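Hi, does anyone understand the following?
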Amino acid sequence: AEPPEGFGEIEGEIVIVKQRWSAFFRTELDMLLRRLGAGTVVIAGLQTPNCVRATAYDAIALDYETVVVSDATSARSGKIHVSNLEDMAAVGVRIIPTAKTLAFLRTPYEWSGLPARVSGRDRRGPTSPHSKRRRSGRIPSIRPLSSGLRSRRAG
C-alpha cells in the first residue's frame, strides 16, 4: 500500500516493510532498533485493535518501553478504540496524546510527567538487569535517529 499524500519517503529515511499486523513480525525492526540503541518505541497509525495493538504487544514482549499516541491512532468506532487503549495500558503500554509526544520530542530526552503504568508490577521479574529501572518508574532516554524510521504494510 502506498502512504497517504504528504507521507512519502524522505531521502535517507529507513523504511521497514511489514508483512503482517505487527511491525516486528518477520521484519528487521527489532535488530535495527537494538543496533541504534533505542529502548523506547512510540506507535501511531491504523487500526488500534490490529496493527497498533499487535506492534505494541510485540514491543512489550521484546522489552521495549512502549508508547501509543492515543489521538494518532484510530479504530472503526470510538468504543473499540478506547477499549483497546485500555487493554494496552493494562499490560504496561503508556498511552499519551500527540501534544505530550511532540513536547517530549522538542525537549531533552526524558519522559518526565507521563502517567504511571496501570500495572505497577515489573513484567521482567526481580532477576532482570532492567528491573531496578522499571521499579523506579523512569523510562530510559531515547536516542534520536539520524533519519526517520517508519513501517508500512507490504502491498
User: Anything to note?
Assistant: The first helix runs from residue 29 to 36.
